[in-house]
Design goal:
It is found in: Cytoplasm. Pathway: Metabolic intermediate biosynthesis; prephenate biosynthesis; prephenate from chorismate: step 1/1; Amino-acid biosynthesis; L-tyrosine biosynthesis; (4-hydroxyphenyl)pyruvate from prephenate (NAD(+) route): step 1/1. The chain is an alpha/beta fold. It has 15 helices and seven strands. Helices cover 61% and strands 9% of the residues.
């Protein structure tokens, strides 16, 4: 069979362009419908993220796609990307105010990135928001005199100190912090405020476009029933709440944050010491290594003080790092001895420990790798 002529290719490409235009029109219609849904959710106080509805819709679309000869994963990828945009657009509609009589929300450190995000969310929900930042302490009594909620979001190593400096708060005021460690801030809040106290840890950065599918860890302090409305407000914003004790939280954060960031820091330091050519590494990188390198590089695009606070504020980071070095030394010993059988036996033992999670993580990472490969440029 002969190859299509240039004229035939141009004609087919023109038809593809027409289909793309139709897709754009359909996307605009879908976004308009999402806006209508957002308005209804705002009026009824419904969360922007409905996991059961999303799962059922994706399952149905995958089945329909397969029946039409369209790869099911293709339609799921498209829908998930559209839904992410839809969740972000629902922020423009605002959210229902669960407790309109609560009084002003005062955000201590509200000019910071995370403080600004929560300021926006509270304002979108109809609350009066006041900012108490480091240059406003001469007005602290005035700003806090009738506060209904006080949110402390300052650098980790200053959190307890700032809490201790707060003037006496109204009896019914809800005091909370957004710090990534919980035991010390929670103890400070309980000691310095006799009213409702709760520790929150948003498991995301301030650059998220929506709280849909994000996790907020809740560490209860005192008078849980008096801040249930606040937890419901956060659910309406789209977040999923995970309850844990402050001790459980801090222990998990040793591995989830402190050690993970420390390990990335060390690998970045190693690349620098080896004078690695990053351009060349990208040329030779598989999607998995490209993703790993991106996560290391992402660390060094952030604020050094923030990550220093996260790593150094955890009391057990040094012990954890030494334990990690012990495991590294054990693996290095196998390499030094040329003991591949020992390596494979240890590998299998660790795989058994991961169990079904290994398969789950492989499947989840598959989509990330496809995305990383799709985003690869010709020069990188």
């Amino acid at each position: 069979m002969s190859e299509p002529s240039s004229v035939e290719l141009d004609r087919i490409r023109d038809r593809i362009d027409e289909v793309d235009q139709e897709l754009l029109t359909l996307l605009r219609r879908r976004l308009n419908l999402v806006g209508e849904v957002g308005a209804i959710k705002h009026k009824q106080g419904l969360p922007i993220y409905a996991p059961a509805r999303e799962a059922a819709m994706l399952m149905k679309r995958r089945s329909e796609a397969q029946a039409m000869g369209v790869p099911p994963q293709l339609i799921e990828d498209l829908l998930r990307r559209m839904m992410r945009e839809s969740y972000a657009s629902e922020n423009d509609v605002g959210f229902k105010c669960i407790n309109p009589d609560v009084g002003p929300v005062v955000i201590v450190g509200g000019n910071g990135k995370l403080g600004s995000l929560f300021s926006q969310l509270f304002r979108l929900s109809g609350y009066e928001v006041r900012i108490l930042d480091k240059n406003d302490w001469d007005r602290a009594d005035e700003l806090l005199s009738d506060a209904g909620v006080v949110v402390v979001t300052v650098p980790i190593n200053h959190t307890a100190e700032v809490i201790e400096q707060l003037p006496r708060l109204p009896k019914e005021c809800v005091l909370l912090d957004l710090t990534s460690i919980k035991q010390a801030p929670l103890a400070a809040m309980l000691a310095n405020h006799a009213g409702p106290v709760v520790g929150l840890h948003p498991m995301f950065g301030p650059d998220v476009s929506s709280l849909a599918k994000q996790v907020v860890v809740v560490c209860h302090g005192r008078f849980e029933e008096k801040y249930q409305w606040l937890l419901e407000q956060i659910r309406i914003w789209g977040a999923r709440l995970h309850e844990a004790s402050a001790a459980e939280h801090d222990q998990a954060m040793q591995l989830v944050q402190a050690m993970r960031h420390f390990t990335a820091f060390v690998y970045g330091s190693h690349l620098r010491r080896e004078r690695a050519d990053l351009d060349q590494l990208l040329q030779f990188s598989s999607p998995i290594y490209r993703l790993e390198l991106a996560m290391v590089g992402r660390l060094f695009a952030q604020d050094a003080k923030l990550y220093g606070d996260i790593i150094f504020s955890q009391p057990d980071t040094l012990a954890r790092a030494r334990h990690y070095m012990d495991r590294y030394q054990e693996a290095l010993s196998l390499l030094e001895a040329g003991d591949q059988e020992g390596f494979e036996a240890l590998f299998d033992d660790i795989a058994d420990w991961f169990g079904d999670f290994a398969t789950q993580f492989r499947n989840e990472s598959g989509n990330m790798l496809l995305s990383a490969n799709d985003n690869r440029s010709e020069t990188g």
